[in-house]
Amino acid sequence: MECKLPVSGSSKIIAWYSNLAFTLHNCFLNMLLTASEIITEFLQFLQEMTSTCPNPQSSFVYQPERWNSNPAVQSSNNCYNYVNDIMTNTFAQPGRANGYMSPSTTGPNLQYGSELDGMVRIEAPSNVCLPTPNGNLAALVIWPEVDYHFYRLDNDGFFSHKPGQTAARNVDNSGQMIRDPRTADRGPYTVFHCFLETNSNNVNIM
User: Fold this and answer.
1) Cα 76 to Cα 65: distance, rounded to the nearest angstrom
2) Rounded to whole angstroms, how far apart are CA atoms 98 and 101?
3) Using the 8-state DSSP alphabet, how is residue 177 labeled?
């Protein structure tokens, strides 16, 4: 049925309004059905996309007690230590082991420092699929002009992270397990900069 007003030749006003209400009611139902169909098709599309995504592997094991049980270890190792699975007890910074200190908190600067240390940027095949690294998968995010943060993929298929001097964890700011840091609740770290690959044997941090 078309969404247009009926042209009635009847002189009865009540009948005209009745036809009008009937037409508007059906138009509204048609719009609801159309919206529902669009949403259903979109959800099916997302499911098809994610079902064909590669399943990146990781050698990292989620062991929060290794980072959290000793207060000295927890306070002296940050997200950069954690993402590379290397304890230095120096609150490591991207590039510092190779003579570089980021002049500002931007994605390109932090990426550059990380690459000097041996990490490698890697591109995702799509917005819903994770990249497949030659090593372990990491993600760099930015709190604009304030801070940076890293996430890492563990061998259980979920990401974990260690914010600064606080405890290592495998949930986001909403307490949800992290399948993809691009869509996780990252709090003020609103800029997703890039994925990187890391290998503890090839990365040197300080």
Assistant:
1) 15
2) 9
3) B
How far is Cα 111 from Cα 195, in angstroms, rounded to an integer? 10
Q: Which of 147, 126, 134 is nearest to 190 (CA)?
A: 147
| Single pTM value for the model | 0.77
The owner of tokens 């800029």 is: 191
Q: Are 73 and 89 in contact (CB under 8 A)?
A: yes
Given CA atoms 27, 31, 34, 40 in this order, what sign does their dihedral have?
Answer: negative
pLDDT tens by residue, 32-84: 667 778 887 666 655 555 568 989 999 999 999 999 999 999 999 999 999 99
User: Quick one: tokens of 114?
Assistant: 């990380």
- Number of helices (H) and strands (E) in the chain: give both, helices first: 5, 5
> What would the two tokens of residue 160 be?
């974990």
Q: What is the mean pLDDT of the chain?
A: 89
Question: Partners of 196 in the beta sheet?
Answer: 121, 138
3-state helix, strand, coil in the chain (%, to 5): 35, 15, 50
The count of other CB atoms within 10 Å of the CB of residue 151 is 29
Concatenated DSSP letters of 125-175:
SSSSS----SSEEEEEEEETTTEEEEEEE-TTS-EEB--TTS--BSB-TTS
d(CA 12, CA 142): 67
Gap between the Cα atoms of 176 and 158, Å rounded? 11
Sequence-ordered alpha helix ranges (H) in the chain: 13-51, 64-68, 71-76, 79-84, 107-116
Which residue bears the tokens 């159309």?
A: 34
